[in-house]
Amino acid sequence: MTPGAWAIHIHGMGGKRAGTLRGIPLARSLGLTSLVVSFRNDGDAPPSCDGRFSLGQAEWRDVEAGINFAISNGAERIVLFGWSLGASIALQAAAMSPNSSRVAGMVLDAPVFDWRTTLAANAKAAGLPRPVVHLGFTILRSKALRWVTGLAEPICLDSLDWLARATELNKPVLVLHGEKDDTTPFEASKKAASLRPDLVRLVEFESEGHSLEWNADPEKWERSVEEWFYDLPLAGSSPEPVGGQS
């Protein structure tokens, strides 16, 4: 066992908590107590006032509630496991949480490091012209055009761009990503690893489709996490108190 060490598992968009169960047996074998969280608008947690996903901009607060719960139940160090959108949420939580110093590292499966890259790739695959894509970005970040998106608040794509913000990363990150991912571009993960080789370790998979790395090669997935985990500095505790959920 790893005393005081917890894993918090965060599913992706359109998924349910059950999708994260692939990582729990391994977390248990590593001595981690696991907590699987839901977040607003996923069908399990209460919806937000607008009923819209905000690409991690607001959902990280629901993970923060999970972090607070873990700490109040004895967690001293936390590893965030994020899948797809859940990885984007994990990145935001690790940066924004008042208890960020408790987060020892992140395991990110098919992560969204930059929503512009991901949305543009999906738009291109759908045959949408580039001007339409850029118009969509403008609408997402416009307060005046919230009536188009139905969002309560505009989305700040810059704050969700962890390629542009790579210098701000301060946690060890393991990225598990398929080279043929048809939803979240593998190139973004490759770029993140090249920008921060001191913190980001990338493991490539031959899997087809999105977020199916474990399904394609569970032995490689679990071995990669295990090797990364044993390099993780989990000793020591954080002086920060548990913050309130906002």
Describe this structure in words.
The chain has 246 residues and is α/β, with parallel strands linked by helices. 34% of the residues lie in helices and 17% in strands. It has nine helices and six strands. It has helices spanning 24-29, 60-72, 85-96, 115-125, 130-140, 146-149, 186-195, 213-216, 218-229, and strands at residues 5-10, 33-37, 77-83, 103-109, 173-180, 200-208. It has a six-stranded parallel β-sheet, sandwiched between helices. Strand 5, helix 7 and strand 6 form a beta-alpha-beta unit. It starts with a strand and ends in a 17-residue tail after the last helix.
Largest sheet: 6 strands, parallel
* Strand neighbour order, sheet with most strands: 2-1-3-4-5-6
Poorly predicted tracts of residues:
235-246
Helical segment tally?
9
Percentage of β-strand residues? 15-25%
Please state the structural category.
alpha/beta
Based on CA atoms alone, the radius of gyration comes out at: 17 Å
Regarding quaternary structure, what we see is single chain
The coarse silhouette is globular
Task: State mean pLDDT (0 to 100 scale).
Answer: 88
Following the backbone from N to C, one meets helices and strands in this order, namely EHEHEHEHHHEHEHH
Number of strands: 6
Helix content: 25-40%
